Amino acid sequence: MTPPTSSTARRDTMRWVPVPEELFQATLKLRMQVQKQLQMRPDLSVVVGAMLARALETDALADAVTRHALAQLQRSVESAGQP
To answer: Which of 15, 44, 54, 71 is the most buried (most CB within 10 A)?
Structure first.
């Protein structure tokens, strides 16, 4: 049996998660800031991975996620109620 190629191995460890467009665009802006500091463009997965790692260090992360989920739900309910 041959070992998986690096691209196959990478796909096996990656997850795809839908992200709201405004958050995706904000992440792209952050990547541009990092690009200026590094003098090279980092892979988007590196940027998102660093953001997630930093967020997971935050003590009140569960509360922030709860507030975000409730705000998303409220927006969804409000848009469903509009004619």
So the answer is: 44
**pLDDT of 6-35, one tens digit each?**
555 556 788 899 999 999 999 999 999 999
Please give the DSSP secondary-structure letter assigned to residue 72.
Answer: H
Residue pointed to by tokens 């800031």: 33
Could you tell me the CA-to-CA distances from 31 to 65, 76, 82 in Å, in that order?
Answer: 23, 29, 36
Helix/strand/coil (H/E/C) assignment for every residue in 1-40: CCCCCHHHHHHHHCCCCCCCHHHHHHHHHHHHHHHHHHCC
Would you say 41 and 35 are in contact if contact means Cβ atoms under 8 Å apart?
A: yes
